[in-house]
Design a protein that fits this description.
By secondary structure, this protein is α/β, with parallel strands linked by helices. Helices cover 35% and strands 20% of the residues. Helix 1 crosses helix 2, helix 1 packs parallel to helix 6 and helix 11 crosses helix 14. The N and C termini lie far apart (50 Å).
Amino acid sequence: MQPETDTIDGNTAVAHVAYRVNEVCAIYPITPSSTMAELADEWSAAGVKNIWGNVPVVQEMQSEGGAAGAVHGALQSGALTTTFTASQGLLLMLPNMFKIAGEMTSTVFHVAARALATQALSIFGDHSDVMTARTTGFALLSSGSVQEAHDAALIAQASTLESRIPFLHFFDGFRTSHEVNKVCLLSDDQIRAMISQDLVRAHRARSLTPEAPVVRGTAHNPDTFFQAREASNPYYRRVPAIVQSAMNRFAALTGRTYTLFEYDGPPHAERVIVLMGSGAETARETATFLRKAGEPVGVLQIRLYRPFSAEHFLAALPESCRAVAVLEQVKEVGAPGEPLYLDVVTTLAQAVSLGERPTMPRIIGGRYGLGSKNFNPAQAKAVFDELMKPEPKDGFTVGIEDDVSHTGLAVDPSFSIEQDDVVRALFYGLGADGTVGANKNSVKIIAEDPAMYAQGYFVYDSHKSGAQTISHLRFGKRPIHSPYLIETANFVACHQAGFLDRIDMLRVAADGGTFLLNTPYGADAVWDPAPSFGADANPGEEASLFRDRCL
């Protein structure tokens, strides 16, 4: 039986599973996670049932702190409960998260990872919020694509019930949460097969009830607090094996295989990039391209970040590796390196000191993609190239021109790995003018063909309605794993003629590409300066230049 497919965004993919395996959803929508909460609310109002035949209770609270408190309370009553959040919203949940983890209560929080407000507010994605939550005691499970986010939502639920450790399942805000892609949907039967009813009953049996009184939520004095805090260690040590076991059962059900640390590359690779999230897809595509030219490079994608399993990491990283670059979407000011970098350095140093690994590779750390800054193959290649240098730069940045502290790597903007068998289209419009909605429909219509795959990503200004939007669409006959912006397009469309005097749209048009101007003016007037270029345009000059370039 062929699996059911649908073309949906990452938020919808996660909500599809989270709604079906929970009984209570406490919500307070925040960009870019809002769609998950909104869908849960919509489905509950429509009477859509979970896998147990019940309609989940969805309650919007007065803040994210209130939502976390409601989750904590519902969990204590034995209900399977979840929430969805991001950024400052996640920070407001931290006090309750420490309690939920300390009490070893099974739950999954789904986070569309987003930048925290620092020197400025950003509604866009990076990992600064989830990295702030790494000390709460929640296990951190990362997804790098729409399909992964869909699948990991179920793997996390199965794992939390078995381990009793709460999970924070995160995926990149906007880049994954809002990317539209073709996915294989999990059926309710597959979801049921992953959820042990015995573990659900055990979760309910741990509820606070007068019929089985227990002491919980006490205060400890110095004579007992330390011992009690360490008592959870065996449970955390078991988490990696439990998650891998859940991944193996998932593979048997669906045919889609996942590992805690997924290495892609030859066993003799000399240079390896380590990272998590959607950037792994870009790095993997780039490494595949470079290997065809004979370069011994690989990519190690981290899925289970906490608890960090040194055993699984060392098993995945080739012993031939002599240089490692750890890429992160977070800046930890004042530290000797970002969190994942320090974990990798520690893990490898301990392995070498214990004789578990023959040599210590050179390890450098770098930052990319803060605030959804585009991370493309040219930047990934720049990192691989840096690893070839006798003294590669540590603490680097890639993707920005850092003329202040000079941390940036040089990037060749002409480097591209876009395939000729993939159609690439760019659409320029205004928020709320219908361009994005129409393009989402186009992606879904094309992907309805079983032989076709489609991807849509939509760049919004933070002003949203009335601000410029750029729709990035890809179509082809193979799965599309390209989570970066289109830089050369076969088809470029302008839905607002007023953009022509401000944006050089033909710069991104491929040779022989098509340009479409959506305008109310006829062919005899469209090249006049006033309609297309604004009333202040130099008569005839800009119009004729643009016309000549089009022709």
